[in-house]
Amino acid sequence: MNRTLVRAVLLVLAGAGAFGLAAAATSAGVKDLSLLFRDDFKKGAGAWQPTDPSAWKVIETGQAPAYSQFRQSKYRPPYRSPLNFSLVKGVSVGDFVLDARVRSTARDYPHRDVCLVFGYQGPARFYYAHLGKKTDDHCNQVFLVNDAARKKISTKTSAGTPWDDGWHHVRVVRQVADGTIAVFFDDLKAPVMTARDRTFTWGRVGVGSFDDTGDWADVKVWGVKVTKPAKVKIRRSNNEKEK
């Protein structure tokens, strides 16, 4: 994503009141975002670290490959938080844009969801955006996991995410200086969720679902790459050696 496009995205956000700060469009750190990662899954899923590898596979969709979380993971987090997610290997970011196409493959019910994980520093320290069918305090919100069960931190959300069986475009924009988080679903002109929090100013990013299934394609990350102070691991329940 070039500087002009990033600047335009954040100008729209500021104008829509998503951040409430004109500075969101002019921060030098955000304007200089670089493309750090892109995966179309044509070469498999070697760039990913899932909570349970047996729950994920690369599939053919008839148009292009997709990274499919096709069943529930055999993973038990230390606190109530998503069960099914996969992290990009070797990339930790401060400011970032995480962008992907996704298709929900779960049954239709009020909490049908996918999740975008970010700021991941360990299994008990991360954020996630929960794009769920019908909003309540535990659905269709931005959450913080900080050595405790997930906590809602959304400052704005929608009535719900209109899941069907088709493909959709999702995005998270994060600016650490003022803690702003904006989540988009299909319409990239206005966020469906916003939050503001500076608990974690860096971390890994990933995709998945709280307890449903879904297919992911064309995942991209633009951002400011940072060096994490310690190796991040995923705690597993099947005695698999951690990466």
Descriptive overview:
With 243 residues, this protein is mainly beta. The protein has helices spanning 3-16, 28-31, and strands at 34-39, 48-50, 56-60, 65-69, 84-88, 93-104, 113-122, 125-132, 142-146, 151-152, 154-156, 167-175, 180-185, 193-196, 204-209, 214-225. The longest helix is centred in the N-terminal third of the chain and has 14 residues, at 3-16. The protein is built from two helices and 16 strands. It has a single domain (34-225), classed as Exo-inulinase, domain 1 (Jelly Rolls), CATH 2.60.120.
Distance between the termini: 30 Å
CATH architecture: Sandwich
Tell me the number of helical segments per DSSP (H or I, 4 or more residues long): 2
Main sheet properties: 9 strands, antiparallel
User: What's the total count of β strands?
Assistant: 16
User: How large is the share of residues in beta strands?
Assistant: 35-45%
Give the topology string: H per helix, E per strand.
HHEEEEEEEEEEEEEEEE
CATH superfamily: Exo-inulinase, domain 1
Rough outline: globular
- CATH fold group: Jelly Rolls
Number of domains: 1
CA-based gyration radius = 17 Å
Query: What value does the average pLDDT take?
Result: 86
